[in-house]
Design goal:
By secondary structure, the chain is of the alpha/beta class. Helices cover about 25% and strands about 20% of the residues. The longest helix has 18 residues, at about 110-125.
Length: about 400
C-alpha cells in the first residue's frame, strides 16, 4: 500500500507526462478585475506549457514591454508554473503588440540588439521559452504595424542569430502563425519555410478568427476542415493550414494546432437564422454588421487600440461566458430555449437565442475532441489554446487532452 501511495504521488498528469504540447496562452490582463483569473486559478496539471501574454514590441529595440499585461505578475506566473512542472514561456507580440517587429529585425545591428533584448528578458524572469506572435511579417495586421517586404527573411536571420546565442540555444523557441505560411517578398505565402523548421522548435497555427464580424456571413470561428464547404465558404481551416505549412517544408511533428476557448457573436434575424419553414439553424446566414452584440464580461465595450483608433465591442464569448450568458448549461451543452447546430464540415457548433437574435459560432467538447483526434491521427505536436482563462470547468481542455 505504501508503494502504491508513493507511486501515485510521483506520477505526472497525462498532459504533463505527454511528449505532445498541451499548452495555453495566459492573458496577464485578466489576472485582476472582473472575473479575475490569477495564476493560482489555473488548473496546472492540465498543461505542460503556458505562454504568458503579452510582452510587446516598442519603438526602442533594446526594450520589450509588459505594459497592459500586469508585468508585476510575471514572476508569480513563472513560479506557479515551475512549481507544477509546467514550462513557462513568454509570448511576444500579439494583435496589438507587433507594431515594431519589422524594425526590430530590419538590420543586422538591430537583430543583434533585439537578440540581447530577448535573451536578457528570458534570464531576468527565468523563462523556459519564447513564443513569437508577430501578426504578421510583410502583411499588415492591426493597421499601423511597420511592414517591410523583407520581413520574413529578416525574421529568419534574427531567429538564426538567437539560436546561436548560448541562452537562445537552450530555450524553446516557437512562433504563433497564420493559417498560411509567412509572406515572401512579393506578398505571397512562402513556398519554402524549411529554414524556419531548423531554428524553431515548432509553430502554433492560429486556427481561429477565420470567420467573424468582418466576414460576409456567419461562419465557423475555428473550422477543423473546410474542404467539404462551397469554395466561397473556404476561408481556411486546420486541415488546409497544416497542408499548406507542411507542403512548404514545416514537418507535421513541428506543428501545434492553436484552438480557441471562445466564439464570435452576430446579430441575426430569425428569418435568416432558420432554414425557411423550419426551426433548423441555417448554415452561413446573413447578419447585421451594424449591430454587434456585446460579448461576455471580458469583452471590450469599446476602447482605443495600439494605433490610437477607437474600436467597438468585439462580441466575443468565452466558453464560461456562454454559460454565464445562458446559451449553455453548466455541463457545457445547450441551455433550454436555445437553438443548436453542429456543422459536420467544420466540426464546430453554433447556438442561437431567437429572443435576443444573437447567434454565436464557438467550440465545445465535441469540436475539441475532433481536433484532438486530428492532432493524434495526423502526428501533430500538440495544441495551444487561446486562452487558459476561457474554459469552463476544464470541459474543453479535458476533451482535447483525452482525445490527443
Amino acid at each position: 500500500m505504501l508503494l502504491l501511495l508513493v507511486a501515485s504521488l510521483t506520477l505526472l498528469s497525462s498532459a504533463q507526462a505527454s511528449s505532445k504540447v498541451a499548452g495555453a496562452w495566459y492573458a496577464g490582463w485578466h489576472a485582476t478585475g472582473t472575473n479575475a483569473y490569477p495564476p493560482s486559478k489555473v488548473n496546472w496539471d492540465k498543461y505542460n506549457t503556458m505562454y504568458y501574454s503579452f510582452a510587446t514590441t516598442t519603438s526602442y529595440v533594446n526594450s520589450i514591454s509588459l505594459e497592459g499585461s500586469d508585468g508585476l505578475l510575471l514572476p508569480a506566473f513563472v513560479s506557479e508554473a515551475h512549481a507544477h512542472g509546467v514550462k513557462a514561456h513568454i509570448a511576444i507580440g500579439g494583435w496589438g503588440g507587433s507594431v515594431y517587429f519589422s524594425s526590430d529585425v530590419a538590420t543586422a545591428e538591430n537583430r543583434t540588439a533585439f537578440t540581447k533584448t530577448v535573451v536578457d528578458f528570458v534570464e531576468k524572469y527565468d523563462l523556459d521559452g519564447v513564443n513569437f506572435d508577430w501578426e504578421y511579417p510583410n502583411h499588415q495586421g492591426i493597421g499601423c504595424n511597420i511592414v517591410n517586404s523583407n520581413d520574413t527573411a529578416n525574421f529568419l536571420s534574427f531567429l538564426q542569430e538567437l539560436r546561436e546565442d548560448c541562452v537562445g540555444s537552450k530555450i524553446t523557441i516557437s512562433a504563433a502563425v497564420s493559417v498560411t505560411p509567412f509572406r515572401d517578398s512579393d506578398g505571397n505565402p512562402s513556398t519554402d519555410v524549411s529554414d524556419f523548421a531548423k531554428v524553431l522548435d515548432y509553430i502554433a497555427i492560429m486556427d481561429y478568427d477565420v470567420w467573424g464580424s468582418w466576414t460576409s456571413a456567419v461562419g465557423p470561428n475555428a473550422p477543423l476542415n473546410d474542404s467539404c464547404a462551397k469554395s466561397s465558404e473556404q476561408q481556411g481551416s486546420a486541415v488546409s493550414a497544416v497542408k499548406a505549412w507542411s507542403k512548404a517544408g514545416m514537418p507535421v511533428d513541428q506543428i501545434v494546432l492553436g484552438v480557441p476557448s471562445y466564439g464570435h457573436s452576430y446579430s441575426v434575424k430569425p428569418t435568416d437564422a432558420f432554414v425557411s419553414g423550419t426551426k433548423t439553424l441555417a448554415s452561413y446566414p446573413a447578419f447585421n454588421a451594424s449591430n454587434q452584440p456585446v460579448g461576455d464580461a471580458w469583452d471590450n465595450t469599446g476602447s482605443v487600440d495600439a494605433c490610437g483608433n477607437y474600436q467597438g465591442s468585439g462580441g466575443t464569448f468565452n466558453f464560461w461566458g456562454l454559460v454565464d450568458g445562458g446559451f449553455l448549461n453548466s455541463e457545457g451543452t445547450t441551455a433550454k430555449g436555445i437553438y443548436y447546430r453542429f456543422d459536420s464540415c467544420s466540426q464546430t457548433p453554433y447556438v442561437y437565442n431567437e429572443t435576443s437574435e444573437v447567434m454565436i459560432s464557438y467550440d465545445n467538447a465535441e469540436s475539441f475532441t475532433a481536433k484532438g483526434e486530428y492532432i493524434k491521427n495526423t502526428g501533430l505536436l500538440g495544441y495551444a489554446m487561446w486562452q487558459a482563462g476561457g474554459d469552463y470547468d476544464d470541459i474543453l481542455t479535458d476533451a482535447i487532452n483525452s482525445a490527443m
